[in-house]
Write a structure and sequence with these properties.
Subunit structure: Homodimer.
Strand content: 15-25%
Radius of gyration: 36 Å
Distance between the termini: 112 Å
Region (A): 1-350
Mean pLDDT: 88
Structural class: alpha+beta
Organism: Ruthenibacterium lactatiformans
Subcellular location: Cytoplasm
Region (C): 566-641
Oligomer: single chain
Length: 641
């Protein structure tokens, strides 16, 4: 039989198809099984209108058979089979799709769900096989045909003997070469694992004879009746490798919570039940099923570069990609689960997915679904939501901050902050609606812990006015609020304001004038203190925010003291940043009276020491490190003698 040449004429094209579309060699089995499933689909669909097809749905199957001695792997189905012309058409042209033609040409009006494109997927077999033989007999045909090829050099087609209808693909598996161990594709445990991973939800049983071991009955006791290690025998069992019915396609009213939990733990390697299950079925522009899970705990590597986000992506129940990152925005990267769509081609590369319009529609729909589920969770089960937020709230905050706040409208009402007045977590909406009429800003304080923030001198005055303060303890918090800028109903939005900021908007005009006059009156004292601090502060002045404390630090520029601390703690921050610090004094405190006495007495040395001590105390209150701990200790000691 003369060898024929592929219409897609060069070996270079075949190599490109194999090496660019498929990342892992094991994919070949998924492709061959999907082709077999499509062939069965065609005959089953025909049986609905053709009485000559004697097979019922329960009669269809796909069978795998590995022969280690002869190094062959056979994938057999009892589907519709192929004529000589169809073998030529489907296997003689790389990227030819018999399945796609069937889907497009069917005119019966029935729903036909074939998986993929025969041509491209079939040629993945050459990743592991040195020779591929296809033996097929079409339904209604009296003769069978054999197609055979060793690669891009060409192929042969000739008659063969085959009693039953259907197709068998026989692969002669390559010999091991270097680090490539092709023997694994002849081991039944490995084949079963590949089926479970990629083809578990093919709707026809995938069968394989497997060798197993069992204890021989009666060999676990000796002649005296004492227990001993039993003898074992090997036996062969015909095993169905796939479960066939995806849990996400079952009626969710008939699926128990325990079943979802077990599926999640088995599929995603978690030992804890999921905190929430989200199931979605969408039809229309983008048709897909989604089964999503929110973990009940934070993965150990979640906030590291090693964590890989993404959902499993299926095409009609066949796994396309283990982690498709393009289905989730970063701020929802904690979500695990899968998406199954009939609109996606099985033969699609990672690069092609990035530009797939259906994938973008699915992503947008999922994003809206997850947001709505989280909002409902917050409203209906506050305790569970707060537990979720402790695990993954930081990710939502980072989502608000990222891309210059582009996603703030989507995420801001999902955030929780610690309320100083309520001593519990509140939403921005709850804070906003509880604000007194005369409150100008949404106040916040940023630091290491709520306990430390509650002791800040600047917090005392704000709380005394009856205004609440949001305590921020995550590094990203203040940066995020700067992206949000404000919150509230249109035309009544309130800006966020740090309690250490320049103007808190809580003073009356009379109080402002009074403090302005006192600052002018003590101008020379403050200049002397500023000079003694030698550039550590941009200004020394009387405070309008202090009540019982003698001193505090505030900032007069866009960079707050806490932001300075956060930025300078980052490993990548080579050049240290510096906020514009202001040393504020309580004009009603006896410490200020002592400073005035020293200045009037002309004791510049002690005034400088007092200034240093007050500045260092203010640093400690803010949770900042002392610039010179030894100098601070010496100044304190001088006061003791």
């Amino acid at each position: 039989m003369a060898k024929k040449q592929f219409k897609a004429e060069s070996k270079r094209l075949l190599d490109m198809m194999i090496n660019s579309i498929y990342t892992h060699k094991e994919i070949f089995l998924r492709e061959l099984i999907s082709n077999a499933s499509d062939a069965i689909d065609k005959l089953y669909f025909r049986s609905l209108t053709d009485d000559s097809v004697k097979l019922k749905k329960k009669d269809f199957f796909i069978r795998l058979a590995a022969d280690k001695e002869n190094r062959t792997l056979t994938v057999r189905d009892n589907g519709i089979g192929m004529t000589k012309e169809e073998l030529e058409k489907n296997l003689g042209t790389i990227a030819k799709s018999g399945s796609l033609d069937f889907k497009n040409e069917n005119e019966t009006g029935g729903k036909v769900d074939v998986i993929g494109q025969f041509g491209v997927g079939f040629y993945s077999a050459f990743m592991v096989a040195s020779r591929v033989t296809v033996r097929s007999r079409a339904f209604g045909a009296q003769e069978a045909w054999q197609w055979e090829s060793t690669g891009a050099e060409g192929y042969t087609i000739e008659p063969c003997d085959k009693e039953d209808v259907g197709t068998e693909v026989i692969l002669v598996v390559k010999e091991n070469e270097g680090e490539e161990h092709y023997d694994e594709f002849l081991d039944d445990w490995r084949l079963a694992g590949i089926v479970k991973k990629y083809s578990d939800y093919i709707r026809y049983p995938i069968k394989m004879l497997r060798e197993k071991s069992r204890a021989i009955e009666g060999t676990d006791k000796d002649e005296e009746g004492h227990y001993k290690a039993p003898e074992y025998e090997t036996y062969t069992e015909d095993e169905t490798l796939n479960s066939m019915v995806p849990i996400w396609k079952r009626d969710k009213k008939k699926v128990k919570d325990e079943e979802y939990a077990q599926f999640y733990k088995d599929k995603f390697g978690d030992y804890s039940d999921p905190a929430r299950v989200i199931q979605s079925k969408t039809e229309g522009t983008a048709t897909f099923n989604a089964l999503l899970f929110i973990p009940s705990r934070t993965p150990y590597n979640y906030y590291t570069k090693e964590y890989e986000k993404g959902l499993q992506l299926y095409s009609s129940g066949v796994l396309i990609m283990e982690k498709c990152a393009d289905l989730l925005p970063d701020y929802f990267s904690f979500v695990k689960g899968l998406v199954d769509s009939e609109d996606l081609s099985l033969n699609i590369s990672r690069e092609m997915l990035q530009h797939d319009s259906q994938l973008k529609l699915i992503k947008t729909t999922l994003e809206r679904k997850i947001k709505n589920e989280l909002a409902a969770w917050l409203k209906n089960d506050r305790e569970k939501y707060e537990e979720f937020f402790r695990n993954f709230g930081l990710q939502l905050k980072m989502g608000c901050y990222a891309s210059y706040g582009m996603n703030k409208e989507l995420l801001q009402d999902l955030l929780l902050f610690h309320s100083a007045k309520e001593n519990k977590l509140v939403t921005l909406r709850e804070y906003y609606e509880a604000m007194p009429e005369d409150q100008k800003y949404i106040y916040y304080a940023a630091g290491e812990s709520t306990d430390r923030l509650a002791k800040l001198p600047a917090a005392e005055r704000v709380l005394d006015k009856g205004f609440d303060i949001l305590y921020l303890t995550d590094d990203v918090d203040e940066f995020m609020l700067q992206m949000l800028r404000s919150y509230g109903d249109k035309e009544k939005e309130k800006e966020f304001r740090n309690i250490s900021a320049d103007d808190l908007g809580i003073e009356t005009d009379a109080e402002k004038e009074e403090v302005k006059a006192k600052n002018e009156e003590n101008k020379e004292l403050f200049e002397a203190m500023k000079e003694a601090l030698d550039g550590k502060v941009t200004e020394v002045r009387l405070s309008q925010r202090l009540k019982s404390h003698p001193v505090c630090l505030s900032s007069s520029g866009p960079l707050s003291i806490e932001m300075e601390k956060v930025l300078n703690s980052m490993p990548a921050q080579q050049e240290k940043v510096k906020s514009e610090k202001v040393l504020e004094l309580n004009g009603e405190h006896e410490v200020f009276a002592a400073l005035k006495r020293l200045f009037e007495a002309g004791d510049k040395e002690k005034l400088a020491a007092y200034s240093e001590i007050l500045y260092d105390q203010a640093l400690l209150i803010e949770g900042l490190a002392l610039e010179d701990p030894v100098a601070y200790a010496n100044n304190v000691c001088k006061l003791m003698v």
